[in-house]
Design goal:
Blueprint (H helix, E strand, L loop, with lengths): L2 E6 L3 E6 L10 E4 L4 H15 L3 E6 L2 E3 L2 E4 L11 H4 L4 E6 H12 L8 E6 L3 E7 L2 E2 L27 H6 L1 H10 L5 H9 L3 H25 L3 E6 L5 H14 L9 E4 L6 H12 L9
Parallel strand pairs: 1-4, 4-7, 8-11, 11-12
Antiparallel strand pairs: 1-2, 2-3, 5-6, 8-9, 9-10
Length: 289
């Protein structure tokens, strides 16, 4: 059995065979395919190169079984059934945030936990939930799409970006930075660390909205830990207290004080999760141990 792990993003695609210890060993990285034909052709080449019999594929969108149902930035994948495209292969297809949580719960910062919530904060906000030792996928593969959480009854909505994404994602931080004359979110963080009150207030507002919305998820799910992945994970020493303050303000005493941790695998989490899912097969998502 040879597992090939694929981490497909809106911009890049990474692939690696899985070694005996269960981790991706080495592999290929390049730009994301521009069409369905290119995607299928590249995967066939990789399958042949590594003599793979099992695939674990994480995508930046929704999957149902072996079918990619909605991938906003790679629309050519919508409706593609991987089992039909690669007959005879074992296919584990899933959302990239779900795969990242699978990795963190199996061998990372959430190891040993049975209930956890992951937020991947980058261009948008991806999310995933571990409940009772299993990744929750939902009836359409869309469970726990936390970027769509809303704490504003008057918001008119948007068909492509949820309320929380529009207020607390990396893109939202970029917009807040540019309103202050800064180049983007990284510069905004640097300004906060340098003592800028304006920059601090902009970040604090976004993190307060994130914590407020997060309180609903914590109240519903009672996770043991919240894992933060994506571009802001390296800044948790600064951001976690801001999130926690708003989170605790909206929760009863018995739910306060939940741990907020940066993911251990960083940008490798999706590929690591794809490797684990690939070994498990179509019914992936169970946490061992």
């Amino acid at each position: 059995m040879t597992v090939l792990a694929i981490d497909l993003g809106g911009t890049n695609m990474r692939a690696a065979p899985v070694g005996p210890a269960g981790e991706p060993r080495f592999g290929d990285q390049g730009s994301a395919p521009k069409s369905r034909d290119e995607f299928v052709s590249r995967l066939r080449m990789l399958i042949d190169r590594y003599e793979a019999t099992r695939l674990g594929i994480g995508i930046p969108g929704l999957a149902r079984g072996t079918v990619a149902t909605w991938v906003p930035n790679l629309g050519y994948l919508d409706g593609l059934d991987l089992a039909e495209a690669f007959p005879g292969m074992s296919i584990a297809l899933g959302n990239d945030a779900q795969f990242a949580l699978l990795a963190e719960a199996s061998a990372g910062v959430a190891r040993g936990r049975r209930d956890a919530l992951l937020l991947s904060i980058g261009t948008g906000i991806g999310s995933a939930v571990l409940a009772g030792g299993r990744i929750v996928r939902g009836s359409k593969g869309a469970a726990c799409s936390f970027g769509w959480a809303c704490a504003d009854a008057g918001d008119p909505g948007d068909p492509r970006n949820g309320w929380l994404e529009r207020h607390a994602s990396g893109t939202a931080l970029d917009s807040a930075a540019k309103a202050l004359g800064l180049s983007g979110g990284t510069a905004l963080i640097t300004a906060v660390r340098g003592g800028s009150r304006e920059a601090h207030d902009a970040i604090a507002r976004a993190m307060s909205l994130l914590g407020t919305a997060l309180s609903g998820a914590v109240g519903l799910l009672d996770p043991e830990v919240v894992v933060i992945a994506g571009g802001v994970a390296a800044e948790m020493d600064l951001l976690a207290p801001m999130i926690a303050s708003a989170l605790d303000r909206q929760l009863p005493p018995h739910l306060r004080g939940i741990a907020i941790r940066a993911g251990e695998f960083g940008p490798r989490a999706g590929l690591m999760g794809a490797a684990i899912a690939g070994r498990q097969g179509i019914d992936w998502g169970e946490i061992d141990g």
